[in-house]
Amino acid sequence: MIYKGIIERYKKYLPVTDKTPIITLYEGNTPLLRAKNIEKFLDINCEIYLKFEGANPTGSFKDRGMTMAISKAVECRSKAVICASTGNTAASAAAYAARAGLKCSVIIPDGSIALGKLSQAMMHGAKVIALKGNFDDALKIVLEITEKYPLTLVNSLNPYRIEGQKTAAFEIIDFLGRAPDYHFIPVGNAGNITAYWKGYTEWKTGPKMMGFQASGAAPIVRGKPVKNPKTIATAIKIGNPASWKKAEQARDESKGVIDTVTDGEIIKAYKLLASLEGIFVEPASAASVAGLIKYKDVIVSKAKQSRFTIVCTLTGHGLKDPDRAIKSAIQPKVIDQNMKKILKAIGL
Ligand SMILES: *Cc1c(COP(=O)(O)O)cnc(C)c1O
Fold it and tell me: In the chain, what are the domains?
Protein backbone atom coordinates (compact mmCIF):
# COMPACT_ATOMS: atom_id res chain seq x y z
CA MET A 1 0.00 0.00 0.00
CA ILE A 2 1.46 3.33 -1.05
CA TYR A 3 0.12 6.30 0.84
CA LYS A 4 -0.65 9.46 -1.07
CA GLY A 5 -2.10 12.80 -0.09
CA ILE A 6 -4.54 14.73 -2.26
CA ILE A 7 -1.84 16.67 -4.10
CA GLU A 8 -0.14 13.54 -5.39
CA ARG A 9 -3.43 11.88 -6.24
CA TYR A 10 -4.92 14.81 -8.12
CA LYS A 11 -1.83 16.74 -9.25
CA LYS A 12 -3.18 17.17 -12.80
CA TYR A 13 -6.14 19.14 -11.54
CA LEU A 14 -4.29 21.32 -8.99
CA PRO A 15 -2.15 24.46 -9.38
CA VAL A 16 1.12 22.71 -8.50
CA THR A 17 4.31 21.92 -10.42
CA ASP A 18 7.09 19.38 -9.92
CA LYS A 19 8.88 22.08 -7.94
CA THR A 20 6.09 22.50 -5.39
CA PRO A 21 7.26 21.02 -2.07
CA ILE A 22 4.43 18.76 -0.92
CA ILE A 23 3.57 19.14 2.76
CA THR A 24 1.17 16.31 3.50
CA LEU A 25 -0.21 14.17 6.32
CA TYR A 26 -1.84 11.85 3.75
CA GLU A 27 -5.16 13.65 3.92
CA GLY A 28 -8.15 12.76 1.75
CA ASN A 29 -9.18 9.33 0.47
CA THR A 30 -11.84 9.38 3.19
CA PRO A 31 -14.57 6.73 3.42
CA LEU A 32 -17.78 7.11 1.42
CA LEU A 33 -20.08 4.93 3.48
CA ARG A 34 -23.47 3.59 2.42
CA ALA A 35 -25.98 4.42 5.18
CA LYS A 36 -28.43 1.54 4.94
CA ASN A 37 -29.73 1.93 8.48
CA ILE A 38 -30.58 5.58 7.90
CA GLU A 39 -32.22 4.65 4.56
CA LYS A 40 -34.39 2.17 6.44
CA PHE A 41 -35.07 4.59 9.30
CA LEU A 42 -36.17 7.30 6.86
CA ASP A 43 -38.04 4.77 4.70
CA ILE A 44 -36.53 6.38 1.63
CA ASN A 45 -36.10 4.67 -1.73
CA CYS A 46 -32.68 6.18 -2.41
CA GLU A 47 -29.06 5.29 -1.85
CA ILE A 48 -27.57 7.46 0.87
CA TYR A 49 -23.80 7.79 1.21
CA LEU A 50 -21.86 9.56 3.92
CA LYS A 51 -18.54 11.21 3.08
CA PHE A 52 -16.78 10.97 6.43
CA GLU A 53 -14.29 13.81 6.47
CA GLY A 54 -13.64 13.28 10.17
CA ALA A 55 -11.26 10.55 8.98
CA ASN A 56 -8.77 13.17 7.81
CA PRO A 57 -5.49 13.45 9.78
CA THR A 58 -6.57 16.35 12.02
CA GLY A 59 -10.20 15.27 12.04
CA SER A 60 -11.83 17.58 9.50
CA PHE A 61 -11.99 18.34 5.76
CA LYS A 62 -9.85 21.44 6.39
CA ASP A 63 -6.78 19.23 5.82
CA ARG A 64 -7.54 18.96 2.08
CA GLY A 65 -7.26 22.71 1.71
CA MET A 66 -4.43 23.08 4.19
CA THR A 67 -2.03 20.69 2.43
CA MET A 68 -2.38 22.97 -0.63
CA ALA A 69 -2.22 26.28 1.26
CA ILE A 70 0.84 25.29 3.30
CA SER A 71 2.66 23.66 0.36
CA LYS A 72 2.17 26.81 -1.71
CA ALA A 73 3.22 29.00 1.24
CA VAL A 74 6.49 27.03 1.44
CA GLU A 75 6.94 27.26 -2.34
CA CYS A 76 6.53 31.05 -2.11
CA ARG A 77 9.11 31.15 0.71
CA SER A 78 6.63 32.38 3.29
CA LYS A 79 7.88 32.08 6.86
CA ALA A 80 4.61 32.36 8.73
CA VAL A 81 0.89 31.76 8.31
CA ILE A 82 -2.19 33.12 10.06
CA CYS A 83 -5.91 32.39 10.13
CA ALA A 84 -9.13 33.20 11.91
CA SER A 85 -10.93 30.06 12.92
CA THR A 86 -13.90 28.50 14.65
CA GLY A 87 -11.40 25.75 15.51
CA ASN A 88 -10.83 23.23 12.75
CA THR A 89 -8.92 25.57 10.44
CA ALA A 90 -6.71 26.44 13.41
CA ALA A 91 -6.07 22.77 14.23
CA SER A 92 -5.27 21.96 10.61
CA ALA A 93 -3.10 25.05 9.99
CA ALA A 94 -1.17 24.40 13.20
CA ALA A 95 -0.47 20.77 12.24
CA TYR A 96 0.62 21.42 8.64
CA ALA A 97 2.65 24.49 9.67
CA ALA A 98 4.46 22.39 12.27
CA ARG A 99 5.30 19.82 9.61
CA ALA A 100 6.55 22.54 7.25
CA GLY A 101 8.52 24.38 9.93
CA LEU A 102 6.43 27.54 9.52
CA LYS A 103 5.28 29.82 12.31
CA CYS A 104 1.52 29.76 12.79
CA SER A 105 -0.82 32.17 14.53
CA VAL A 106 -4.52 31.58 14.94
CA ILE A 107 -7.22 33.96 16.14
CA ILE A 108 -10.24 32.21 17.60
CA PRO A 109 -13.45 33.57 19.14
CA ASP A 110 -13.02 33.29 22.91
CA GLY A 111 -15.36 30.77 24.49
CA SER A 112 -16.93 29.39 21.32
CA ILE A 113 -14.42 26.84 20.17
CA ALA A 114 -14.66 23.15 20.96
CA LEU A 115 -12.12 21.67 23.35
CA GLY A 116 -10.59 19.14 20.95
CA LYS A 117 -9.78 21.80 18.37
CA LEU A 118 -8.23 24.18 20.87
CA SER A 119 -6.05 21.44 22.31
CA GLN A 120 -4.82 20.48 18.81
CA ALA A 121 -3.80 24.03 17.92
CA MET A 122 -1.99 24.37 21.25
CA MET A 123 -0.18 21.02 20.97
CA HIS A 124 1.09 21.78 17.47
CA GLY A 125 2.71 24.93 18.81
CA ALA A 126 0.60 27.63 17.18
CA LYS A 127 0.28 31.03 18.77
CA VAL A 128 -3.34 30.93 19.86
CA ILE A 129 -5.07 34.26 20.42
CA ALA A 130 -8.55 34.09 21.94
CA LEU A 131 -10.36 37.19 20.75
CA LYS A 132 -13.14 38.87 22.67
CA GLY A 133 -15.57 38.74 19.78
CA ASN A 134 -16.95 36.27 17.26
CA PHE A 135 -15.51 34.56 14.17
CA ASP A 136 -16.49 37.42 11.86
CA ASP A 137 -14.56 39.90 14.07
CA ALA A 138 -11.55 37.56 14.05
CA LEU A 139 -11.57 37.26 10.25
CA LYS A 140 -11.74 41.02 9.83
CA ILE A 141 -8.69 41.48 12.06
CA VAL A 142 -6.73 38.74 10.29
CA LEU A 143 -7.44 40.36 6.90
CA GLU A 144 -6.17 43.69 8.24
CA ILE A 145 -2.98 42.05 9.51
CA THR A 146 -2.24 40.18 6.25
CA GLU A 147 -2.65 43.41 4.29
CA LYS A 148 0.14 45.06 6.27
CA TYR A 149 2.46 42.23 7.31
CA PRO A 150 4.16 39.39 5.41
CA LEU A 151 2.02 36.59 6.83
CA THR A 152 0.26 34.15 4.52
CA LEU A 153 -3.50 34.00 5.03
CA VAL A 154 -4.70 30.37 5.20
CA ASN A 155 -8.43 30.97 5.58
CA SER A 156 -10.61 29.74 2.71
CA LEU A 157 -10.18 33.17 1.06
CA ASN A 158 -6.80 31.70 0.12
CA PRO A 159 -7.68 30.22 -3.30
CA TYR A 160 -5.41 27.19 -2.74
CA ARG A 161 -7.68 26.09 0.11
CA ILE A 162 -10.64 25.82 -2.29
CA GLU A 163 -8.44 24.00 -4.83
CA GLY A 164 -7.49 21.37 -2.27
CA GLN A 165 -11.01 20.97 -0.95
CA LYS A 166 -12.51 20.37 -4.40
CA THR A 167 -10.76 16.95 -4.41
CA ALA A 168 -13.53 15.59 -2.16
CA ALA A 169 -15.90 15.89 -5.15
CA PHE A 170 -13.36 14.05 -7.32
CA GLU A 171 -13.21 11.19 -4.81
CA ILE A 172 -17.00 10.89 -4.77
CA ILE A 173 -17.19 10.71 -8.58
CA ASP A 174 -14.31 8.21 -8.63
CA PHE A 175 -16.07 6.01 -6.09
CA LEU A 176 -19.63 6.16 -7.44
CA GLY A 177 -18.60 6.23 -11.09
CA ARG A 178 -20.64 9.41 -11.51
CA ALA A 179 -21.85 12.42 -9.53
CA PRO A 180 -24.71 11.87 -7.06
CA ASP A 181 -28.15 13.43 -7.68
CA TYR A 182 -28.16 15.40 -4.44
CA HIS A 183 -25.29 16.59 -2.28
CA PHE A 184 -26.09 17.77 1.26
CA ILE A 185 -23.49 19.86 3.06
CA PRO A 186 -23.18 22.17 6.10
CA VAL A 187 -22.50 25.83 5.30
CA GLY A 188 -20.50 28.15 7.52
CA ASN A 189 -18.02 30.41 5.81
CA ALA A 190 -19.22 28.70 2.59
CA GLY A 191 -15.78 27.68 1.32
CA ASN A 192 -16.62 24.00 1.22
CA ILE A 193 -19.84 24.20 -0.81
CA THR A 194 -17.89 26.46 -3.20
CA ALA A 195 -15.07 23.91 -3.42
CA TYR A 196 -17.33 20.90 -4.06
CA TRP A 197 -19.18 22.76 -6.79
CA LYS A 198 -15.87 23.74 -8.38
CA GLY A 199 -14.75 20.10 -8.29
CA TYR A 200 -17.97 18.79 -9.80
CA THR A 201 -18.10 21.38 -12.57
CA GLU A 202 -14.44 20.82 -13.51
CA TRP A 203 -15.43 17.23 -14.24
CA LYS A 204 -18.47 18.55 -16.14
CA THR A 205 -21.07 17.07 -13.87
CA GLY A 206 -22.85 17.93 -10.67
CA PRO A 207 -25.59 17.16 -8.20
CA LYS A 208 -28.09 19.61 -6.77
CA MET A 209 -26.10 21.33 -4.02
CA MET A 210 -28.13 21.35 -0.79
CA GLY A 211 -26.44 23.65 1.75
CA PHE A 212 -27.56 24.02 5.37
CA GLN A 213 -26.91 26.79 7.87
CA ALA A 214 -27.91 26.70 11.54
CA SER A 215 -31.14 28.67 11.99
CA GLY A 216 -29.43 31.07 14.45
CA ALA A 217 -26.55 31.67 12.03
CA ALA A 218 -28.16 31.76 8.60
CA PRO A 219 -27.07 34.95 6.80
CA ILE A 220 -27.36 33.47 3.30
CA VAL A 221 -30.90 32.23 3.92
CA ARG A 222 -31.96 35.51 5.57
CA GLY A 223 -30.26 37.58 2.88
CA LYS A 224 -28.27 39.73 5.30
CA PRO A 225 -25.36 39.35 7.75
CA VAL A 226 -26.25 38.09 11.24
CA LYS A 227 -24.66 40.28 13.94
CA ASN A 228 -24.68 37.78 16.80
CA PRO A 229 -24.84 34.29 15.29
CA LYS A 230 -26.05 31.62 17.71
CA THR A 231 -25.82 27.83 17.44
CA ILE A 232 -24.35 24.87 19.29
CA ALA A 233 -22.72 23.90 15.98
CA THR A 234 -19.67 26.13 16.54
CA ALA A 235 -18.00 25.26 13.21
CA ILE A 236 -20.84 26.96 11.33
CA LYS A 237 -21.43 29.80 13.80
CA ILE A 238 -20.70 32.48 11.23
CA GLY A 239 -22.67 35.65 10.53
CA ASN A 240 -20.98 36.97 7.39
CA PRO A 241 -19.57 34.18 5.20
CA ALA A 242 -16.47 34.95 3.14
CA SER A 243 -17.66 32.91 0.14
CA TRP A 244 -21.28 34.13 0.29
CA LYS A 245 -21.64 34.96 -3.42
CA LYS A 246 -19.95 31.77 -4.58
CA ALA A 247 -22.23 29.68 -2.38
CA GLU A 248 -25.25 31.35 -3.98
CA GLN A 249 -23.73 30.66 -7.37
CA ALA A 250 -23.29 26.96 -6.49
CA ARG A 251 -26.90 26.84 -5.31
CA ASP A 252 -28.29 28.56 -8.42
CA GLU A 253 -26.17 26.80 -11.04
CA SER A 254 -26.91 23.38 -9.53
CA LYS A 255 -30.62 24.18 -9.01
CA GLY A 256 -30.18 23.35 -5.34
CA VAL A 257 -31.10 25.16 -2.14
CA ILE A 258 -29.50 26.80 0.86
CA ASP A 259 -31.78 26.48 3.86
CA THR A 260 -31.75 26.32 7.66
CA VAL A 261 -31.85 23.54 10.23
CA THR A 262 -32.47 24.18 13.93
CA ASP A 263 -30.08 23.17 16.70
CA GLY A 264 -32.66 20.58 17.74
CA GLU A 265 -32.65 19.06 14.25
CA ILE A 266 -28.85 19.10 14.21
CA ILE A 267 -28.63 17.25 17.54
CA LYS A 268 -31.20 14.70 16.38
CA ALA A 269 -29.15 13.92 13.25
CA TYR A 270 -25.94 13.91 15.35
CA LYS A 271 -27.37 11.19 17.60
CA LEU A 272 -28.83 9.25 14.66
CA LEU A 273 -25.45 9.04 12.90
CA ALA A 274 -23.76 7.76 16.04
CA SER A 275 -26.44 5.27 17.06
CA LEU A 276 -27.56 3.95 13.65
CA GLU A 277 -24.38 4.09 11.59
CA GLY A 278 -21.51 4.03 14.09
CA ILE A 279 -20.27 7.39 12.85
CA PHE A 280 -19.33 9.99 15.42
CA VAL A 281 -19.30 13.51 14.02
CA GLU A 282 -19.18 16.96 15.55
CA PRO A 283 -22.54 18.77 15.66
CA ALA A 284 -21.93 21.06 12.65
CA SER A 285 -21.31 18.01 10.48
CA ALA A 286 -24.75 16.65 11.22
CA ALA A 287 -26.36 19.71 9.57
CA SER A 288 -26.12 17.87 6.24
CA VAL A 289 -28.11 14.88 7.47
CA ALA A 290 -30.52 17.19 9.32
CA GLY A 291 -31.06 18.90 5.96
CA LEU A 292 -31.72 15.57 4.27
CA ILE A 293 -34.33 14.72 6.90
CA LYS A 294 -35.95 18.14 6.37
CA TYR A 295 -36.08 17.59 2.57
CA LYS A 296 -37.03 13.92 2.69
CA ASP A 297 -40.58 14.41 1.42
CA VAL A 298 -39.47 16.60 -1.48
CA ILE A 299 -36.95 13.97 -2.54
CA VAL A 300 -39.30 11.02 -2.06
CA SER A 301 -41.94 12.68 -4.21
CA LYS A 302 -39.39 13.20 -6.98
CA ALA A 303 -37.87 9.72 -6.54
CA LYS A 304 -40.98 7.88 -7.85
CA GLN A 305 -39.44 7.25 -11.28
CA SER A 306 -35.75 6.98 -10.49
CA ARG A 307 -33.74 5.88 -7.49
CA PHE A 308 -31.61 8.85 -6.44
CA THR A 309 -28.10 8.74 -5.11
CA ILE A 310 -27.57 11.12 -2.22
CA VAL A 311 -24.27 12.13 -0.61
CA CYS A 312 -24.04 13.89 2.75
CA THR A 313 -20.70 15.40 3.72
CA LEU A 314 -19.82 14.83 7.37
CA THR A 315 -17.29 17.59 7.87
CA GLY A 316 -15.56 16.77 11.17
CA HIS A 317 -14.98 14.15 13.86
CA GLY A 318 -17.10 13.83 17.00
CA LEU A 319 -14.05 13.76 19.29
CA LYS A 320 -13.51 17.42 18.41
CA ASP A 321 -16.34 18.40 20.73
CA PRO A 322 -16.43 15.96 23.66
CA ASP A 323 -18.41 18.37 25.84
CA ARG A 324 -21.37 18.32 23.45
CA ALA A 325 -21.28 14.52 23.25
CA ILE A 326 -21.32 14.15 27.03
CA LYS A 327 -24.17 16.66 27.30
CA SER A 328 -26.14 14.76 24.63
CA ALA A 329 -25.81 11.24 25.99
CA ILE A 330 -26.97 9.30 29.06
CA GLN A 331 -24.43 9.58 31.88
CA PRO A 332 -22.77 6.34 33.06
CA LYS A 333 -24.05 4.75 36.27
CA VAL A 334 -21.60 4.58 39.16
CA ILE A 335 -21.80 1.15 40.79
CA ASP A 336 -19.99 -0.70 43.61
CA GLN A 337 -17.89 -3.79 42.88
CA ASN A 338 -20.95 -5.95 43.35
CA MET A 339 -21.66 -8.55 40.65
CA LYS A 340 -25.40 -8.61 41.27
CA LYS A 341 -25.73 -4.86 40.87
CA ILE A 342 -23.45 -4.84 37.84
CA LEU A 343 -25.44 -7.58 36.07
CA LYS A 344 -28.64 -5.73 36.83
CA ALA A 345 -27.21 -2.53 35.35
CA ILE A 346 -26.19 -4.40 32.20
CA GLY A 347 -29.72 -5.76 31.98
CA LEU A 348 -28.90 -9.45 32.57
C1 LIG B 1 -15.21 24.54 8.55
C2 LIG B 1 -16.28 23.61 8.92
C3 LIG B 1 -17.59 23.73 8.42
C4 LIG B 1 -18.01 24.86 7.53
O5 LIG B 1 -17.37 24.86 6.30
P6 LIG B 1 -17.33 26.21 5.43
O7 LIG B 1 -16.37 25.95 4.35
O8 LIG B 1 -16.87 27.28 6.37
O9 LIG B 1 -18.72 26.46 4.97
C10 LIG B 1 -18.52 22.79 8.79
N11 LIG B 1 -18.21 21.78 9.62
C12 LIG B 1 -16.97 21.63 10.12
C13 LIG B 1 -16.70 20.50 11.03
C14 LIG B 1 -15.97 22.54 9.79
O15 LIG B 1 -14.75 22.39 10.32
Answer: 6-59+160-327 (3.40.50.1100), 62-157 (3.40.50.1100)
Cβ-proximal residues to 72 (8 Å cutoff; 6+ apart), any chain = 15, 16, 20, 160
Element (H, E) at 298: helix 296-302
Which residues surround ligand 1 with Cβ inside 6 Å? 60, 62, 88, 156, 186-192, 235-236, 282, 284-285, 315-316
Distances (CA, A) of 119 to 31, 55, 268, 281, 282: 25, 18, 27, 18, 15
**Which element (helix H / strand E) includes 118?**
helix 115-123
CA of 304 to the centre of ligand 1 (A): 33
Using a cut of 0.90, tell me whether the model's pTM lies above it: yes
- Res. 303: pLDDT tops 90: no
Residue 304 pLDDT level (bands cut at 50, 70, 90): confident
Q: Which pLDDT band, with edges at 50, 70 and 90, does 302 fall under? A: confident
Atom 5 of ligand 1: nearest residue by CA position = 188
